[in-house]
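Much of the work behind modern protein science is quiet bookkeeping, done one molecule at a time. The protein below has been through that process, and both of its lines are reproduced in full.
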Amino acid sequence: MSDKTSILIVDDNPNNLQVLGHLLKQENFSVAVSQDGQQALDYIAKKHPDIVLLDVMMPGMDGIEVCERIKANERSRQIPVLFITALSDSEDKMRGFRAGGHDYITKPFLKEEVLARVRAVVDRLQVEAELRKSRKALKEINENLEQKVVERTENLRKLQLQLVLQEKMASIGQLAAGLAHELNNPINFVYTNFTTLEENINDFFHIFVGYRRLIEKQDLAGGDLADLELLHEDEKRAHVDFVLGDIEALFAESREGFKRITWIITSLGNFSRSEQAEEKTTSDLNRAIEDTLVITRNEYKYHCEVETELGNIEPLICIPQQINEVLVNLVVNAAHAIKGQKRASKGKIQIKTYMQDTTVCCEIQDDGPGVPDGIKMRIFEPFFTTKDVGKGTGLGLSISYDIIVNKHSGDFVVQDAEGGGTIFIIRIPLLQQELIGKTYKRSGGTVCKI
């Protein structure tokens, strides 16, 4: 309702219109007049006045019918109607109340009565307006509160899942460190024994060859042929010639196996370094990629071939465990995408690193199904996943984005690969803004200041 209350006076008597109109205008009300019921209804439909003063007795459509039509209309039923009636017309007053009237003004008009009854309605309208305003404000507060509760609950859910993932990564790191430690000792003494055995076998090999030459000379000299024949038969049963030829290959393969085990243990140790979770230090991204491929090999070895093109790049100032987490997510996601195609031949994952001015770049490309354009803008959203229910939390790429963009001041983008598939591109500046003036640890343990 506006500051100036609008009142429509409906009466077929011009004198009544003039008297009431003059009286109300003196009190700063906005006044409009109408001399018949239909004209009044048309005005109400267009202007929607705050109050209607309505004469009961009018030719054609009387005041009772006009009131009933006002109250039957959804848009106008809330408008208060004050009937104008003679002091003795009790029946008219009752009919007016039954039709929906709020009050009445009696004729002949008394100024004090007219103003008192109109002001009472105005006060009521103001109270109702304030009540509506309060209800609206309360509704908005409740909606905002509900929204905040929903947002808070969602944030807590995200935080909880992130903590679970961090705990899992920490547990994996601890497990890897423990596994590397437990394997290292037995591998060392097995390798030592293997080396000693190899030396002993080589000595035996040379001695055995010498014996065979001596026996051959004895055979030619005409010695005890029966015993020599038995010895030859034993050699045949033992496949001595094959064994002698295969010994070198067996030891060569065993040496490669030990190298492989040593490399895995080293990678496990690198992957589970015990720096503080949020502490930045220098790190070799190429080595991190190599370690990641060792750790995740079981995820891709049956479905993908991995090609690497690791360039000559500068050491990164980063949180190594977090960078490892990003690399693991991307390699495993690529492997799962290719696996999901159930193709007859193996897919391919290509990993490339290079410098771009003062920025270290890493591209991880696969020839899987790719990311549809319709969801490309959503893949970094928390909990968004295209995997089947129970096979992914939808947090991997979201957390990776947070690590690269927010925690390392970098860029993390996804592109379509030429010929099909997906390319994830990581760019991390060597000089991150938040590191200026701060100290960090070199991988060797020394502390430096930028």
